[in-house]
Design brief:
The complex is a heterodimer of chains A (about 180) and B (about 400). In chain A, helix 4 links the parallel strand 4 and strand 5. Chain A has a domain of about 120 residues: 2-Layer Sandwich (60s Ribosomal Protein L30, Chain: A), CATH 3.30.1330. In chain A, about 40% of the residues lie in helices and about 15% in strands. Chain A is of the alpha+beta class. Chain B is mainly beta and about 400 residues long. Chain B contains three helices and 29 strands. In chain B, a hairpin with a 6-residue loop joins strand 23 and strand 24. In chain B, helix 2 runs parallel beside helix 3. Chain B starts with a helix and ends in a 6-residue tail after the last strand. At the A-B interface, strand 1, strand 2, helix 4 and strand 5 of A face strand 5, helix 3, strand 8, strand 12 and strand 29 of B. Strand 2 of chain A pairs parallel with strand 12 of chain B.
Chain lengths: ~180, ~400
């Protein structure tokens, strides 16, 4: 009993000190016990602190349907000629219609790296933002965010999916 | 003349992209160790298999029938959990004897494997370390931590919206990451001791791709609040940010040198992403890569000698390692079409990365000495690994 207690004490000292025990024994007559403590508790799902979520309502879906997304070429934030007319229609719809705001989401295809695609998506969203502002849309009605390749519209690994995912998406938000 | 010269350089760069010398395994330098196990019949196979895995993945020891050292373990159940008695002999002479007790047999085996590596080589082992990564499922995104054994991943944070670019702190207690749950790419910090995450930076636009300084006093990260994507330094004590890059191009994906004096990062200032090195207080940057097209996600090795990164080769992306001065480029992945996000293990003998080599994206660990690759993640589409520091089990 006393032997057991003393070995636990040794173990506790080793654990607290955190040092590697120097028990490399030349004669092999003795041994020490190392208590291996799992520092991760079994349940460690964390809590999100200090946060509120803004949700768009069903009423805004009508506006959502009027706004068409803008698609891009690989590794590019430039507008092709095909999308200029779509951009103009989007801009005039936002100008002429009150009661909502728009979050411009920049998206990329899965080729290339996460870090660079977050940056590329930002530039795509910003390109549309700048176009809309230059067209005359009030900056109070616009926000933009880059999702990079983190939230693809089509998770497939095909040319078609990649083309589908390289876009600036108009997400309608409540507000005016 | 100058045009021809540039053209020839471009041709050389383009043709060189697919012909890098693969890194060659040199596992002959490992110390051979023979292993045996006895004890509880439910535990003994698990323990022996894990010990063999740990030794063979150390990059310093290798299991062998004729070992320089013989490691014998005995595993038993106790009232409080499990116990592992380990004895190591060499040429009949005892080298060490040590008992381990705890709740989980894998943790005990890892602890012994790391002690064995240390006692035989004087270098730290990484079997006890953990790796965190992001998983995307149909229901959302999760940040999880995984040990290097069959135990399943434990979720740290989960959300419907995007979680990405996690980075484990040097003190081991925190993981900073980017979350979109507030509608912006904000920087959050999860603490293991608090078991909660709080928003630490929420400037308009990107607050992403964080990298800890070696001492943990600063985080280099990508911000775009000035309508331009640049690298900034966040002082973790004062929350003040300092802009390090001033160009109109994209600057992102910072990684500190182990001295903290330099930062390697990605910039597309010449029209496509390449790696550059600058002082960690900013200033002039020197281009570090010229042999590839697209390069990104640099990671400076713990001893400062090497930089791992992702580069495009033809249609595919692979992991490369080069000396920190840009020389001696070696390709270390060859399968799949998208290998990315390399991060170093804490001893510089391993890399973790994500790859689609088995179909769906997953996280893999690579031991550089023998070029052994193992799948780590046990969930769906997984990527963005970050490795815990040593001494965190």
């Amino acid at each position: 009993m006393t032997i057991l207690a003393s070995s636990i004490l040794i173990a506790a000292v080793i654990t607290v000190s955190g040092c590697r025990p120097d028990d490399t024994i030349p004669d092999g007559n003795d041994s020490t016990t190392v208590v291996v403590i799992d520092q991760f508790p079994d349940t460690l799902v964390g809590v999100w602190e200090t946060d509120t979520l803004s949700m768009s309502t069903d009423m805004l879906l009508i506006h959502q349907e009027h706004l068409e997304d803008i698609f891009f070429d690989y590794d590019s934030d430039a507008f092709s000629e095909d999308v200029l007319s779509i951009l103009m229609e989007d801009a005039s719809y936002i100008m002429e219609t009150d009661g909502f705001r728009v979050l411009l989401e920049g998206h990329c295809d899965e080729r290339g790296t996460i870090d660079y695609n977050l940056a590329l998506g930002e530039n795509r969203a910003l390109a549309v933002y700048n176009y809309l502002v230059n067209y005359g849309v009030d900056t109070d009605r616009l926000e933009y965010v880059s999702y990079g390749k983190e939230r693809p519209f089509d998770p497939a690994h095909t040319e078609q999916a990649w083309g589908h995912n390289r876009r600036a998406h108009f997400r309608v938000l409540p507000g005016n | 003349m100058s045009y021809i010269g540039i053209f020839l350089m471009l041709v050389a760069a383009a043709s060189g992209a697919d012909s890098f010398i693969p890194m060659s395994p040199v596992s002959a330098e490992c110390i051979p160790v023979s292993v045996s196990a006895s004890g509880d019949r439910d535990l003994v196979d698990m323990a022996l298999n894990q010990l063999i895995e740990d030794i063979d993945f150390s990059g310093l020891l290798i299991t062998s029938d004729e070992g320089y050292a013989e490691a014998a373990i005995e595993v038993t159940r106790s009232l409080s959990g499990v116990e592992l008695r380990a004895e190591v002999r060499s040429g009949g002479e005892p080298l060490l004897a040590r008992n381990y007790s705890g709740e989980n047999i894998y943790s005990l085996v890892h602890a012994f494997a790391d002690d064995l590596v240390y006692d035989l080589t004087g270098e730290e082992g990484i079997a006890s370390t953990w790796i965190a990564y992001v998983t995307r499922t149909s229901s959302g995104y999760a940040l999880g931590v995984k040990s290097q054994d069959p135990r399943s991943t434990r979720t740290v944070m989960s959300d419907e919206d995007v979680i990405t670019t996690p980075a484990w702190s040097p003190d081991g207690d925190r993981i900073v990451f980017t979350s979109f749950r507030s509608g912006n790419a904000d920087l959050w910090c999860y603490s293991f001791s608090e078991s909660s995450a709080e928003k630490i930076l929420s400037l308009p636009g990107l607050n992403s791709s964080p990298a800890w300084s070696p001492g943990g006093e600063a985080i280099a990260l990508t911000l775009s609040m000035n309508r331009n994507i640049d690298i900034y330094l966040l002082d973790t004590a004062t929350d003040e940010t300092t802009r390090l890059t001033l160009r109109g191009s994209i600057e992102t994906s910072a990684s500190f040198s182990p001295t903290g004096r330099q930062i390697v990062f990605t910039s597309d200032r010449i029209g496509y992403p390449q790696l550059y090195i600058m002082d960690s207080s900013g200033g002039t940057a020197i281009r570090a890569t010229s042999s590839h097209g697209y390069c990104d996600s640099p990671a400076w090795s713990p001893d400062g000698s090497m930089i791992a990164y992702t580069a495009q080769t033809g249609r595919d992306f692979h992991i490369f390692v080069m000396d920190a001065d840009g020389s001696d480029i070696r390709q270390v992945t060859f399968q799949g079409s998208l290998n990315e996000d390399p991060v170093w293990g804490p001893t510089g003998r391993h890399l973790a990365f994500s790859s689609d080599r088995d179909g769906e994206r997953a996280v893999y660990v690579l031991e550089l000495n023998g070029l052994t690759i193992r799948k780590l993640s046990d969930r769906g589409c997984s990527y963005c690994p970050t490795w815990s520091p040593l001494g965190f089990r």
